[in-house]
Specification:
The protein is α/β, with parallel strands linked by helices and 313 residues long. Helix content is 41%, strand content 20%.
């Protein structure tokens, strides 16, 4: 049975792209993945993105005999909302790409762009762990640490598209240098990459990861427990700082480190509770959508764009 309407949802990552055709009930009708070949250079990557989007449109027409009505795209970079220009993350080596106009020209439909973390946060807030919550903070913890501030079903971008960057709050001025140029950022001290680095130094295996540290913690290794608890304490300090400023009702933690489950969440809840004074401690929950969040959020962006256009008429 053909859907009444559907949209293209595309989540662009540094190593891969996830996509779907999504109906008005936010159900994926068709899903696809492709690699992002960053090593081929920015022009080749841009070509791959445009080709993938066009292939999705073609697939929709073949399957449902009608084209999608809009597209939403989650991108790892800074978006100029006025022009639709994207400055992509360094691992894609792109600068100042007029992505929205290129996609509109290729697809012949309205296109919405969103920052990848905030787009994932949008999905978690409406469809995932934060569904029904009026105020939430989504914090994915992987190679880095980022954040998305959820307010009444939308995500706050900030004046310049940079709201929610909790990973670059300095928690130890004497700490290690961060990729952003500061020292002692939360990301440099408590991300999955940081935990893996610290555990590798202790256990003597340079290939050790945060997942290995979590397994060692679960097995009772006191060295791993010390590394883990130090990272949890730093993370809790950063989260309490964010809660002091934002007062979220729910704190949604995702990313690779959250895959440790209660090995992370039990001590993290305790550490946050120990640090709050006048603040109301948020409910701390794991993200629910996994790596589907970006794609589902891109679909929401597309539907929101259509709704906004209808409202303006």
């Amino acid at each position: 049975m053909s859907p009444r309407q559907y949209v293209i949802a595309l989540d662009i990552g540094g190593t891969g792209m996830k996509a779907a055709l999504i109906d008005s009930d936010n159900r994926p009708l068709h899903e696809a993945r492709r690699r992002t070949h960053a090593e081929r250079g920015p022009d080749a990557v841009l070509h791959e993105v445009l080709e993938f989007a066009e292939d999705l449109r073609r697939t929709g027409v073949e399957k449902y005999a009608t084209p999608p009505v809009a597209a939403g795209v989650a991108v790892p970079g800074v978006i100029d909302e006025a022009t639709g220009t994207v400055t992509f993350a360094a691992n894609l080596a792109w600068r100042e790409v007029p992505l929205r106009s290129l996609l509109v020209e290729r697809l012949g439909m309205p296109v919405a762009l969103g920052h990848d973390v905030r787009t994932g946060g949008l999905a978690e807030g409406r469809l995932g762990a934060g569904e029904g919550t009026d105020r939430f903070l989504f914090v994915p913890i992987g190679t880095g640490i980022a954040g998305a501030i959820g307010i009444d079903g939308r995500v706050e971008p900030g004046a310049h598209g940079g709201a929610g960057e909790i990973g670059h709050v300095v928690v130890d001025p004497e700490g290690p240098e961060c990729g952003c140029g500061q020292r002692g950022c939360l990301e440099a001290l408590a991300s999955a990459a940081a935990v893996g680095r610290d555990w590798a130094a202790v256990c003597g295996n340079p290939a050790a990861t945060a997942a290995d540290a979590a397994k060692a913690v679960a097995s009772g290794d006191v060295r791993a427990l010390a590394v883990w608890q130090k990272a949890v304490d730093r993370l809790a300090g950063g989260l309490v700082m964010a809660c002091t400023l934002l007062d979220p009702r729910t704190l949604i933690v995702g990313g690779g480190l959250a895959e440790a489950g209660e090995t992370l969440f039990a001590p993290l809840r305790d550490a946050v509770r120990d640090r709050v004074t006048f603040q109301h401690p948020p409910t701390i929950v794991p993200a629910a959508l996994g790596d589907a969040a970006g794609c589902l959020g891109a679909g929401l962006l597309a539907w929101d764009l259509l709704s906004a256009e209808v409202s303006r008429r």
